[in-house]
Amino acid sequence: EKGTYPHYMLKEIDEQPFVIRNIITKYKDDNENIKLDENVRQAVLGADRIYIIAAGTSYHAGLVGKELIEKIAGIPVETHIASEFLYNMPLLSQKPLFIFISQSGETADSRGVLVNVKKLGHSTLTITNVPGSTLSREADYTLHTYAGPEIAVASTKAYTAQMAVLAIMAVDAARASGMEMNFDPLQELGIVANAMEIFTEQKDVLEQIARDYLSVSRNCFFIGRAADYHVCMEGALKLKEISYIQAEGFAGGELKHGTIALIEEGTPVIGLATQEKVHLNLRGNMKEVVARGANPCMISMEGFQEDDDNIVIPKVHDYLTPLVSVLPLQLISYYAALHRGCDVDKPRNLAKSVTVE
Ligand code: F6R
């Protein structure tokens, strides 16, 4: 039930700190260690390469998941769009593990891949919000995202939950293989949950940004580098699907190779700079678009902020910034859609689960 909320989407955005705390509880044992199915652990450890298969927002979580698993556990990962993988399968490694990320567990494109790779005898794991779903039943193993039912068509809390579970899974594998690990995901996710509350409790700033930047715009660009780039892709998808504003998430350094031609006087460009290695490069990219007339909105993280940044996210662990930086983007999309009179929870042409190819 959406209770006093005008829309499910807003309710689900607000639920994210609770979802993250719930995940911490569900994945913690009595000794404060990670609790994870031994079979899942062995499947991850036994893989020489992980193939993440997903669609839409879950694909974007998979892009972040690749970085988490590679950096934390040292296992090579490829993330693929399910519908592409289905008819254009890349060369596979000797001992692949397939991870299907799906909020609904019913996405036909992902299921098509699951059926094919099972025929080849490969090991399969589904990360889903619906444990009894098709992808969950048909895969060898399941990890539950515990986000609670997601009703709004635009996915929000499922995305952050998927990334949280991927981080926990990666650390579990790293520890089980004897790697030194000074990143405690259960503790760091607690900090993430607190950081999320800054946005769920102070929505007026984001409503104002939506009003200032997006009430009449035709298009909008989101630029970021490294993990921020993947969050930008998700921010753009959110904005497109509910506000019908043409939006594009772009790698900051790639814009100048063509797409910058689209920047006109007043084009909104939302820049995301939370990554230590590249935040200054991104600021350079923002200057390039501002010089062409863009209307810049800068989102940075504590520690790397500059005076006129529009939003500063609280400091969280470098691995987990996407879980927090996506919140302002979700809220900006929500208010942009609201101001433009769109049906936030049921955008045109879309269904909550896509059960056809
Ligand atoms: C976007 C959105 C879709 C889904 C995609 C995959 O807000 O909801 O892009 O993420 O259709 O759905 P699942 O995760 O159920 O496989």
UniProtKB/TrEMBL annotation:
Its EC number is 2.6.1.16. Keywords: Aminotransferase, Cytoplasm, Glutamine amidotransferase, Repeat, Transferase. One of its GO terms (biological process) is fructose 6-phosphate metabolic process. Residues 40-184, 209-347 form the SIS domain. It comes from the Bacteria. It catalyses: D-fructose 6-phosphate + L-glutamine = D-glucosamine 6-phosphate + L-glutamate. Signal peptide: none annotated. GO terms for molecular function: carbohydrate derivative binding; glutamine-fructose-6-phosphate transaminase (isomerizing) activity. Its main location: cytoplasm. The active site is at K352. Catalyzes the first step in hexosamine metabolism, converting fructose-6P into glucosamine-6P using glutamine as a nitrogen source. Homodimer. This is Glutamine--fructose-6-phosphate aminotransferase [isomerizing]. The gene is glmS.
